[in-house]
Specification:
five-stranded mixed β-sheet; alpha/beta; 10 strands; 232 residues
Length: 232
């Protein structure tokens, strides 16, 4: 087994290799740079360092969103191309689930990974670890940060918030949840590509040509186009 994982769904670029027993290698960067020119060189470098040829790969696992529309498209397109070219399975994993699994494995409570979606909105969901495995308690969604904080405040459970966009929404979350709100430090805000590979290792493959990203909402340009079509 040799699984290649790819995550370009946000500013973090993550590439991982997993052999079923150990994470062979990871490449992670958190830079505001164009993923489209950096992904393939990163994949090539990691595979060379891990003495892995394309023919050795048995599965591609990709973070399928939500996140940056452009970033998600880049990762999914490359993953689909590799899976089709090498004739190996492809599996998609929620970008939020990868972040939750990377940050909250040892947290006793709920985990709310989040990405900023502008205008006071966030992409988020709710996850928990049970018997060593991660489970989704509330499906991924686009929601106002204030509304999400109110919903979580109704529970007696502690919540760990994770993500590089925490600083944008932390004040709102702390105001509503008080001592029930916990926040990761810089070391827990980057989703790990090795964790992504592990999450996708045992999941069933998806049809490569039918595989699509999970944007949760339409891009603004697409939404405006649909509005114009309805007017006509």
């Amino acid at each position: 087994m040799r699984i290649l994982s790819i995550d370009t769904s946000n500013y973090v670029l993550g590439i991982g290799l997993y052999d079923g027993n150990a994470i062979m290698g990871e490449y992670i960067s958190n830079l505001k740079k164009n993923h489209s020119v950096r992904v393939m060189p990163a994949i090539q470098t990691l595979m060379e360092e891990c003495n892995t040829a394309p023919a050795d790969l048995t599965k591609i696992v990709v973070a399928k969103g939500p996140g940056s529309y452009t970033g998600v498209r880049i990762g999914v397109t490359i993953a689909k191309t590799l899976a089709w070219t090498l004739n190996i399975p492809i599996v998609g994993v929620s970008s939020l689930e990868v972040l939750a699994a990377s940050a909250g494995r040892y947290f006793n409570g709920s985990i709310s990974p989040l990405f900023d979606a502008r205008r006071g909105q966030i992409y988020t969901g709710l996850y928990r670890f049970d018997n060593g495995g991660i489970e989704q308690a509330v499906e991924d969604k686009l929601v106002m940060a204030s509304d999400w904080a109110k919903k979580l405040a109704e529970s007696d459970e502690n919540t760990l918030f994770a993500g590089n966009d925490l600083s944008i929404h932390r004040e709102e979350l702390e105001k509503m949840l008080g001592s029930k709100a916990f926040f990761t430090g810089p070391e827990g805000n980057n989703p790990r590509p090795g964790e992504l590979a592990i999450l996708g290792a045992e999941r069933p493959e998806e049809p490569v040509h039918a595989f699509v990203p999970n944007y949760i909402r339409l891009a603004e340009a697409e939404a405006n186009w649909l509005k114009e079509q309805k007017k006509q």
